[in-house]
Specification:
With 257 residues, this protein is mainly alpha-helical. The protein is 49% helix and 5% strand. α3 runs antiparallel to α4.
């Protein structure tokens, strides 16, 4: 196991609390979403206009199905419809809204990466290629796509670091395939550290530790393989994103009814 490019311990066991989350993917993963208030629609309307992106709109019901919450199932569908620049940006904006919730931290910087026509073209070309690659749902595809979007110190698209571009890759991949791309953020990383992946990078802060990190490609690929293995070892036709959701919520969080 490399200290500079940490990969999961080969014998790392799934935390026992995760088991309580498994077996009901429809309710616990696909319907995991947020209301108009929770994704701050007024903020998005104002800031898209300011960025010159008012041709795009963020909604809890982008598919026109009558939905009142923006959920994972809807984002999977938007990802499948993202075949050109316009639809790819629409997809990304909804992923950002879902992932940000009521907070808007760094979203102005992310919008600025698309406000200029030339920047928009370059960045959407990159995102579209990465989204296409991960739809094969295997470890090699995850490696290719992640390495396209990462750079030392951040992401290739300004403001779009791993915690958010792995959301984009996850929804583009629809959670399908043998080793699908998955969301990796600081909360999930902290749960993995507690489970025994102790060479995951972290930094000391006043109130504890921070696990936000510009993950190495090797680390991300290993993470996706780890959760795929745990899913294979679990009953009930478990998918890896069920485990990701459980890790995000953590020990002591009761599964949704």
């Amino acid at each position: 196991m490399s200290k500079s490019r940490p990969t999961a311990p080969p014998d790392l066991a799934m935390p026992s609390y995760v088991g309580g989350w498994l077996g009901r993917r429809q309710e616990r993963v696909l319907e995991h979403g947020f209301s108009e208030h929770q994704i701050a629609l007024d903020w998005w309307k104002k800031e898209l206009k300011t960025a010159g992106l008012d041709a795009w709109e963020v909604s809890v019901d982008p598919l026109g199905s009558g939905a009142t919450r923006l959920d994972r199932a809807t984002l999977f569908e938007l990802g499948q419809l993202a075949h050109d620049h316009e639809s790819t940006l629409r997809f990304l904006l909804h992923v950002l809204a879902w992932g940000s919730g009521i907070g808007s931290r760094n979203n102005r910087k992310r919008l600025a990466a698309f406000s200029n026509e030339e920047l928009r073209r370059v960045n959407l070309d990159l995102l579209q290629r990465a989204a296409s690659i991960v739809q094969s749902g295997d470890a090699y595809a995850n490696r290719q796509a992640y390495s396209m979007l990462i750079r030392p110190g951040g992401g290739m698209v300004p403001g779009l670091g791993p915690a958010f571009f792995t959301k984009f890759l996850y929804f583009a991949g629809r959670g399908e395939g043998k080793v699908p791309p998955l969301i990796l953020d600081a909360r999930v990383a902290s749960r993995l550290y507690d489970a025994g992946w102790t060479d995951l990078p972290r930094s000391s802060r006043k109130n504890g530790y921070s696990y936000s990190y510009n993950w190495y490609t090797d680390t991300y690929v290993s993470y996706c393989e780890l959760l795929a293995r745990w899913a294979d070892e679990s009953p009930l036709g478990t998918r890896p994103d069920e485990i990701e959701r459980a890790l995000f919520e953590g020990l002591g969080a009761p599964p949704p009814a």
